[in-house]
Amino acid sequence: MLGKILTSSVEGRHQLKTRLQEGARWAAIVTLVVAVLIPVYAAFRISLTPYAQLGEEHILPTYWAWDTYLRAIENTFVLRQILNSFIFATAVTTLNLLIVIPAAYALSRYDFRGKYAFMFGVLMTQMLAAVTIVPGLFAIVVETGFIDTYIGVIVPLVAINTALSLWLLKGFFDTVDVALEDAARMDGCSRLQIIRQIVMPISIPGILTSAIFVFIASYNAFLIPLILLSDRAVNPVTVGIYAKFGDQPIQYDIIMAMTIMALIPILVVFFYMQKYIVKGLTSGGFKGM
Amino acid sequence: MLGSVYTKSRRMWSRTRSIARTDSVYPYLLILPVVIWLSVVYFYPLVRVVFFSFTDATLANPGEFVGLQQYRTALTGEFVDTIYRTAIWTGFSVSFAMLIGLGGALALRKPFFGRKVVITIALIPWAMPLSITGYIWRIMLMADIGFINIVLHDNFGLISENLVFMRDYPLASVIGVRIWKAFPFALIVYYARLKAIPSELYEAARLDGAGKWTQFRKITLPQLREVTMITLILLTVWTTMLFDIIFVMTGGGPGTSTMIIPVEIYKDAFQNFRLGRASAKAMITVALLMVLTSIYWKIADF
Question: Which pTM value belongs to this model?
Fold first, then answer.
């Protein structure tokens, strides 16, 4: 009898412990989801609240002032600036991959003198970050007359994202079996044929992953366009919204409408490409850095 | 210091396989575009920054050679406080982001219905542009129209007065935002690493009678060591050099309460037009980061 009570109480304690653990786990998960979503929701709520009602104490959206979005489109450059962001991001991604794919392939497949010095140099660009080269970059862009042009922003952004894509892609090429290439070589394929017909097709997922990372990073770019572009019509949307904080009074509803509009494209890319993003974030790429 | 990083990284990298050792020009041709591109828009500007740092150049004129003057001024002036503040900003944001990331990854370890959705949601801050994160939080934290005060004060009356975050807790507030932005990276990296730990290790430990806590300490933590060091290095470098969030939220203010190194470099160069001074501070920062990374690297000991 006593034994039975003892065992059941031990079991009970064990059960309680697991239940507490489960409770803590779910509390953590719920907190995490809520903490991530609240700022997005709050931004959305403000974009739908008329300016005069902004301070009112409603948690749930009470107003549906969609015309804020119309006013933002009419009175600011927001659509033009989102388009600019896309132009920058697409151009940077394309150029970046064009120069990085061959380099990553070389690093993955060949040993050559100076290889590690080169890799170390690229690693250093990660360490230096944009902000340390900005004084020199600004001087050069002014001297060459590329200030306030698309090219003046695109060219530095390609360089700034080189380390990111080079490491992702090198990591990816490292996982691709070399046996196929060896076989093709035996069959008398030229080096270019091997790259075009064998390496590229297998590597499409890896290239896509790198492309998404560079695209997101250049859509996010802020400092470089901030210093190199003064014209609001050529600014990307990240800088365009910042300029709206200079107005008096600051139109928070318009600003949040612009923010939501700027977020939508990047979140669409994110949700569509999530599989590749998770793969990229968890692949060997980041470990090499 | 740098030398040891170089040899160590070289040892790590040389594990890569290759078809052939080659003396041909082919691999050089393949890396040539990157070499040229980085030389023109990364290393050449860097050389200019090094030169600027020994002059009193402004945006308008190239200035004159002043030797180490700019470095002396920087290291005896307010910039020292900025370095301390940056250390606080980086230290708190990175450690909390990593702890929360690890906690989240552990909570998401056991499969459940909807886990994929939760991970997608958790990654939203990662995908969100830094500047946009700053705009959203700047308004979230406002005293009168900020959502936090609307919930805590107006609706639930949990606090008697609106919290004025940017007046009373400016540095803590921006650190909080940085944590919100950075923890998803740590979470997904830990999540993937946890998944890769072979379950046989836990089974063997269970057979030996090890409890949950012992299993965590003796198996999980050691397995996470390498990934922790890498995430730590990356987040430290990224956060120390992070310009966007603080610039759009506070511009370094009120006063200098949130002034960190990148924002100060920007203000020196583009608001006070002192390229020379900004460049000296940039060089000091690079040196500090290299020392810090070398120390991490030494501790990591791959």
Answer: 0.87
